[in-house]
């Protein structure tokens, strides 16, 4: 499969509270065939931890 399923974009930045739901979203993306891209990030918003993780579709050619 050269394109992500369900019309999803090749690059996605998943964000949300640092909780089980966020972890499941990242896990679901990996199960679909996405790969982690870069390091996760964490910040505080009104005292709540908000995390972010970029994922890319496994067929994206990386130029370094």
From TrEMBL:
Source superkingdom: Bacteria
Protein name (record): DUF1737 domain-containing protein
Pfam families to which the protein is assigned, alphabetical: DUF1737
Domain DUF1737: 10-56
């Amino acid at each position: 499969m050269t394109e992500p399923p369900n019309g999803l974009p090749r690059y996605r930045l998943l964000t949300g509270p640092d909780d089980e739901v966020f972890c499941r979203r990242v896990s679901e993306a990996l199960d679909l065939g996405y790969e982690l891209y870069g390091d996760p990030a964490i910040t505080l918003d009104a005292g709540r931890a908000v995390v972010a993780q970029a994922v890319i579709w496994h067929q994206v050619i990386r130029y370094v």
